[in-house]
Task: inverse folding
C-alpha cells in the first residue's frame, strides 16, 4: 500500500504530535496511560506464549552446544520438559507479581526514544510498495 505523506509535518516529532493532541498539561498523564496499556498488552501476550516449549527447545540446544554428548543427551529431551514447565511457571509468576515494576520503566524509556522520532519517519513505515 502506498501512502502519500504530506510535508506538513516538517520536523514535527512524535512527542510534538502527542503534546499537540493531549496538551502539554496532560502529556505526562497520556504517557502514563500509554505505558500502562502497553504493559498490560505485553504481559498478556507473554502469558499466552508457549514459554515451556521455547525454554525446552532453546534449553536443549544450549545444553547440546555446551556439554559433552552423553551428558547433553542425558539432560536434554524428557528431563528438559519437566524443567521447562517449572521455569515457565516461575516466569509467569514473576510477570504477574512484578510485571509492572519490570516493564513500565522499559516501556517508558522506549516511549521517550519514540517521541524523538520525526512523524514523517513513522509514516514512511506504512509505505509497503517501496
Result:
Amino acid at each position: 500500500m502506498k501512502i502519500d505523506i504530506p510535508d506538513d509535518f516538517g520536523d514535527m516529532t512524535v512527542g510534538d504530535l502527542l503534546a499537540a493532541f493531549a496538551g502539554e498539561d496532560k502529556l505526562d498523564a497520556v504517557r502514563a496511560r500509554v505505558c500502562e496499556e502497553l504493559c498490560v498488552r505485553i504481559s498478556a501476550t507473554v502469558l499466552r506464549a508457549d514459554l515451556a516449549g521455547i525454554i525446552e527447545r532453546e534449553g536443549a540446544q544450549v545444553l547440546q552446544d555446551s556439554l559433552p554428548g552423553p551428558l547433553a543427551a542425558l539432560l536434554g529431551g524428557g528431563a528438559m520438559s519437566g524443567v521447562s514447565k517449572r521455569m515457565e511457571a516461575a516466569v509467569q509468576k514473576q510477570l504477574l507479581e512484578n510485571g509492572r515494576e519490570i516493564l513500565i520503566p522499559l516501556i517508558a524509556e522506549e516511549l521517550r526514544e519514540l517521541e524523538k522520532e520525526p512523524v514523517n519517519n513513522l509514516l514512511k513505515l506504512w509505505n509497503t510498495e517501496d
About this structure: Helices lie at 14-22, 27-48, 51-66, 69-75, 78-115, 119-124. Residues 63 and 69 are 9 Å apart (CA to CA). The longest helix spans residues 78-115.
